[in-house]
């Protein structure tokens, strides 16, 4: 995750996220500060992610907990757009593809909330009972460069907050807030800034069984999970001091859970794709170290609104082309074939190097970035985000 103080991240492996030295310390009134440094060319560096569910310094602060089956989902909105502080882990994740003239961008803004079990009984107002992390990233497709920043702070003191009752999360001057008009994302970093209004065009997409999404063979391996695909985006992107107006499409995921990964899983592969005809495709799998699948799932919602939820075994990921990271030495499949009941798709990254070293915040190195979607006839039919975790070693919970 990002940090309580500002940090710009290049791509460093032995050092802090993004190639600079990272310093961790107390940040003012309860803010933990991680100060990484500036981005470099995406062909030489990379960054970013939302993989907080299963990794990072927050994980070390959390109690081990016990797996338990979640009750059936009965999600209600706008209430469930907001925070669920009784659960260990939660994230709000907006990704999208933007255009300004002939320039193309991918962006990501993610806020994570982590319940710190060890401090829940403490009476001090300084006790870090909830931590808030934030990640932001901007991929310049033409420049083949990924810009990234991150923050972390404990909730309170008007520094970090995650409201209940509706979506309103912030970490200092970064924020994600929902209103009747949609979702507003604001990020200001040293090298880039995002001010994006994401307008809802479709109803909430409940993942899994009406919002209860299994993540493994055991009943306790599950989360509450919904999406808002096909968000219409307008706003501005500022890159190295130059602001450009942008339009595009985005996707929101909101997920919360108490559960950990299945013991055999080292990480996951995930796609969230906005199709040009208004359809929405979600597919994921949890992966063993040998590349085999522990669990898979997803959904396809057609442009007419009908939704098919994939059964286990119906989302089949097959790597096609890989990219080798010179920093982490990980080999990421940046082209995939993904077989689903909807079609046999090909996923192709727009920029190979979209790797993020987040060891100074969430503790993981992972790949996440903008990608195109092609149907079984080879026609480009959509664009969205691809995420791959656990390629440098098992994600630790």
TrEMBL record:
Alphabetical list of InterPro entries matching this protein: AttH-like_dom_sf, AttH_dom
UniProt domain AttH: residue ranges: 89-258
Listed Basic residues bias regions: 1-12
Region of interest (Disordered), residue spans: 1-46
Classification via Pfam families: CrtC, Lipocalin_9
Top-level taxonomic group: Bacteria
Alphabetical list of PANTHER family matching this protein: BLL1000 PROTEIN (PTHR38591:SF1), HYDROLASE (PTHR38591)
Designated name of the protein: Carotenoid 1,2-hydratase
Organism: Caenimonas aquaedulcis
